[in-house]
Amino acid sequence: MRRWYGQFFGFIAGWLLLRHPVGGFIGLLIGYLFDHDAFSSPRRHRPSARRAQPPPHEDDQTDWAYQVLGLTEQASADEIDRAYRKLISQYHPDRLVGAAPELQALAERKSREINAAYDRIQTLRKKKK
């Protein structure tokens, strides 16, 4: 739905403030820009194109998975589990039920990334055994 009230109120306010028809025209232009989101940030309306995807090579995937959890490849299984639990409890989407939709989407993406990294580490560790 397109907004119209910015143009209307801009026209009235411009006319009354400048007490001249030119003021109404200036207010109409400002209202038009307001209605068409010229004053808002472009990042606000554009979804983030940055996705957390692992690189194509297997060695890079292991580095990626450990970096997501903030660990090194020498970390023990307990350290991996602790780091996973800490991060997933911090970024789980259910913890942000009343938050803004942008924050919920960010938490959902981050939790997917954490889960993918944890699964990748677990599969790599099973292969080594």
Structure explained in plain terms:
This is DnaJ domain-containing protein. The chain crosses the membrane at residues 12-34. Keywords: Chaperone, Membrane, Transmembrane, Transmembrane helix. Residues 40-61 are annotated as: Disordered. With 129 residues, this protein is mainly α. It folds into two domains: 5-41, no CATH class; 53-128, DnaJ domain (Helix Hairpins), CATH 1.10.287. 68% of the residues lie in helices and 0% in strands. It contains six helices and no strands. The longest helix is centred in the C-terminal third of the chain and has 28 residues, at 101-128. The model is unreliable at 45-49 (pLDDT under 50).
Provide the fold topology.
Layout: H1 5-18, H2 21-35, H3 42-45, H4 58-69, H5 77-91, H6 101-128
Helix pairs in contact: 1-2, 4-6, 5-6
Organism: Thermomonas hydrothermalis
Transmembrane segments: 12-34
InterPro entries: DjlA_DnaK_co-chaperone, DnaJ_domain, J_dom_sf
What would you say about this model in short?
With 129 residues, this protein is mainly alpha-helical. It is built from six helices and no strands.
Q: So what's the overall shape?
A: rod-shaped
Q: Beta-sheet strand percentage? A: under 5%
Number of helical segments with 4 or more residues: 6
Q: Please identify, by name, the CATH architecture of the largest domain.
A: Orthogonal Bundle
Q: Determine the CATH superfamily of the largest domain.
A: DnaJ domain
Q: In angstroms, what separates the terminal alpha carbons?
A: 59 Å
Number of strands: 0
Output the CATH class name of the largest domain.
Answer: Mainly Alpha
> Which percent range fits the helix content?
55-70%
Q: What is the CATH topology descriptor of the largest domain?
A: Helix Hairpins
Mean pLDDT: 77
* C-alpha-based Rg, rounded: 25 Å
- What's the order of the H and E elements? HHHHHH
Transmembrane segments: 12-34
Pfam family, one: DnaJ
Keywords: Chaperone, Membrane, Transmembrane, Transmembrane helix
Region (Disordered): 40-61
